[in-house]
Every structure is written in structure tokens, then in C-alpha cells.
């Protein structure tokens, strides 16, 4: 396997790509990890999916009409994009570039199709796949979330099974059984990857644990 830290010798921030079947708890875990660790930024994707009541424009997603999304594809403005469960989602090149210059590490929450494309273009990216403890637990979480009809939940579960088949080409797999444990495992991966990068630089910035980020790092 290609050394995924090789590119970081140039001093770029790390990019963590996180995928999971819908309902696994990705949003919950990413929020918790971002509260706990400094110097992490979330890459806000563009989507044609309707905004949910608990979501904020520009924070959770940029919610855009279908024709605007198609225009962005035509203008080659996405690093990657995919159709997921009937809606379009994409990561804008310009947003990623802006975040990269901030001297922070990035988290991209993208599906397996997008992760595959991003992996080809960002060979330093670290890929993490989150798994539910079981399909039954996933079903319970989807029902507990209260966002979908039973029919939609069945559709998500069918999609989850094919998603899980993609987990083997990710660098790390984390099972989200107990939230606290999964948060600790995710944090450990990020801190370890940061330590590896510092080792490659031959010095320590202490970025794994302390608030010390910015262009100078
Ligand atoms: P995703 O972003 O992967 O679609 P969410 O973060 O929205 O998933 O989580 C789906 C539901 O599962 C939410 O109601 C959340 O509170 C719940 N959840 C997340 N992690 C766990 C866990 N470890 N155990 C039980 N419920 C969980
Ligand atoms: P949701 O609609 O539940 O927020 O997300 C549905 C799926 O779309 C999730 O698997 C999520 O990871 C994925 N997704 C969100 N943003 C992007 C993106 O920019 N690109 C791709 N390829 N998938 C995304």
C-alpha cells in the first residue's frame, strides 16, 4: 500500500474521510470528536437533499437546487460528487482549498462512492469507516431518529448492506456500539495520525491534544 503519510512531508493538514451507512451515528460521533479535539474543521458539502428541521444552512450542508448542482458539475467545481439515496452530494474544490490554507486538519463526511474518488485525488487522505454493531441496531437507530418512513428505512438498510462491503479498503474501521467508546477510538486514530505526521516532520507541534493550530503550524 502507498504510504499515506508521504504527501504530508510537505506540511499540509491531514484529511480524514469518514463514511458509514446512514443511521450508524456518524454525525453524532463527528460532532463529539470535533468538540473534544482542537484544530479540526468539518468540510461542508453541497446537496440537493431538502434541509431537515435540525440542520443549518452552511453548517451541516449548503442546500442548493438541482440545476445549480448540475451547473457545478459541468464547471468541474467538485473534487468529488455522488448520488446517494436519490439526492446529490458533493465536496467543492474551492472550499477544500480554503480550509487547507487555514493550517487545520479536515473531516470529510462522504459516502463510499465519493470516498473512492477522493482517495484517488487526495492520496494522503486517511479513510475511516464506521460500522453499526448490527443491522438490527442500525434499524433501531433509524427508527429512533424519527426522520424516515418504514419504507425509507428499508431502502436505507438495503443500501447499508452494499455500503458495508466497501469497508475493507478503508484504513481504519470503528464499530459504533457504545458512543463513548467509539468517540475515544476516533480520537485515538486522529491523535495517532497527527503524531505520525509530526514524526515525519522531525518535530512536535503538540497538535494532537493542545490548541495550537494556524498557518504557522
Ligand atoms: P448518521 O449521521 O450516521 O446518519 P446519526 O448521527 O444521525 O447517524 O445517528 C442516528 C441515530 O442513532 C441518532 O438518533 C443518534 O442519537 C443515535 N446513535 C448514534 N450513536 C449511537 C450509539 N452508539 N448507540 C445508540 N444510538 C446511537
Ligand atoms: P445525509 O443525507 O443522511 O446527511 O447523508 C447521506 C449520505 O451522503 C451519507 O452517506 C453522507 O456521508 C453522504 N454525503 C454527505 N456529503 C457528501 C459529499 O459531499 N459527497 C459524497 N459523495 N457523499 C456525501
Search tags:
binds adenosine-5'-diphosphate, binds guanosine-5'-monophosphate, 19% strand, five-stranded parallel sheet, globular, 217 residues, four-stranded mixed sheet, disordered N terminus, 7 helices, alpha/beta, Rossmann fold
Structure description:
There is one protein chain. The protein has 217 residues and is α/β, with parallel strands linked by helices. It has a domain at 4-42 and 104-212: Rossmann fold (3-Layer(aba) Sandwich). 40% of the residues lie in helices and 19% in strands. The protein is built from seven helices and nine strands; from the N terminus they run βαβββαββαβαβααβα. It has helices spanning 26-36, 66-74, 93-100, 112-121, 135-145, 150-164, 179-201; strands at residues 15-19, 40-42, 45-47, 61-63, 78-84, 87-92, 105-109, 126-131, 172-175. The strands form two sheets. It has a five-stranded parallel sheet with strand order 2-7-1-8-9, with helices on both faces. The longest helix is centred in the C-terminal third of the chain and has 23 residues, at 179-201. The two termini are 28 Å apart. The relative contact order is 0.21.
Protein topology:
Blueprint: E1 15-19, H1 26-36, E2 40-42, E3 45-47, E4 61-63, H2 66-74, E5 78-84, E6 87-92, H3 93-100, E7 105-109, H4 112-121, E8 126-131, H5 135-145, H6 150-164, E9 172-175, H7 179-201
Parallel strand pairs: 1-7, 1-8, 2-7, 3-4, 8-9
Antiparallel strand pairs: 3-6, 5-6
Helix pairs in contact: 1-7, 5-6
Guanosine-5'-monophosphate binds at residues 19, 22, 45, 49, 80, 82, 84, 89-91, 109-111, 113-114.
